């Protein structure tokens, strides 16, 4: 299976036949956007009399639009400087025709900007968090399981054409780690791993203070590394993947197959067929045996995954999103920490922080915006206009 792999360059352009007229040539206009932000920042400094060069290059003077395209909901957000000024969320309902779905996203962006009194031309950069996998140039969304009909959609270029602004795109795991790094539990650290466990499992990595994508852009497909050879079947076609044990969809399937119909968890869900991980979390809090056993199993496999990650990358922080964040300290984070510590060398865990997400409801709003900020920071790095790419702490 090769769901994460894709051709590049000319082959990409050729295979883009479903969207004639769309060129996949990378985020245009980033340089100009950086200049605009730098100019505004300089003006602000002159006005305020603050000549300090410290702080974020993008910082307080940017106007960023974020789009978080999720499997069930889409969130568009406008950030003025470091502040989310406005946001809207609506259900993601794939129509089977991606161009129509994208029109709906663009319309939501235009509404958001109009309501906030910001002209589209005044947006410096648009950042998109989209389900993986995507091609290595981050131009195409390549058949995510939750978006019916989205097979090699040149989302970045389509949005750039429609909105007339530079657009940068990252997979949702990368967007999440950027958001945690800039605004959440990874703030101030240089080596951060963020594991998402909503439908599938993705890992975003900040290594040495930079987003790590790997050569193919799919470095974070850690959800499909193996915990058990010949283990549980995974949606990717392999067996025993991390996702097959701690992914929300896989766990939901298991719960619905195995939960005793009269268990507290099943009753809480209104029937076994409606069981989801959050019902198990709630039932485990009440001491329901089935639910506590399931949490134990989840924690065990999550600890295995984190242990592998820690040995491979020695991160300073591992942020565990979604299910662990909802389950909290006693039910999940403490047992996972203890198991990782047991199976890992003390040198590696002495300074290691394993924690839940700190972003809460702001996660989706910050995901796209953080992608835009990263793109502008990257554009600013190494340039001579007195702009640096430093990070908001
Ligand atoms: Zn897999």
Q: Please, how many domains?
A: 2
CATH class category name of the largest domain = Alpha Beta
The outline comes out as globular
Low-confidence runs: 1-17, 382-393
Beta-strand fraction estimate: 5-15%
Cα-based radius of gyration, to the nearest Å: 21 Å
Count of individual helical segments: 13
Helical content (DSSP H or I, runs of 4+): 40-55%
Describe this structure in words.
- By secondary structure, the protein is an alpha/beta fold.
- The protein folds into two domains: 9-35 and 56-172 and 365-380, Nucleotidyltransferase, domain 5, CATH 3.30.420.40; 185-358, Nucleotidyltransferase, domain 5 (2-Layer Sandwich).
- The chain has 13 helices and ten strands.
- It has helices at residues 9-14, 30-48, 98-116, 155-163, 172-183, 243-246, 248-258, 264-269, 277-285, 289-313, 322-343, 346-349, 363-380; strands at residues 63-69, 73-80, 83-91, 125-130, 167-171, 192-196, 202-207, 210-211, 317-320, 353-356.
- A five-stranded mixed β-sheet has the order 3-2-1-4-5.
- Mean pLDDT is 86; it is low at 1-17 and 382-393.
- Residues 224, 234, 236, 238, 241, 243 line the site of zinc ion.
Features:
alpha/beta, 13 helices, 5-stranded mixed β-sheet, Nucleotidyltransferase, domain 5, disordered C terminus, 10 strands, 2 domains, 14% strand, binds zinc ion, 393 residues
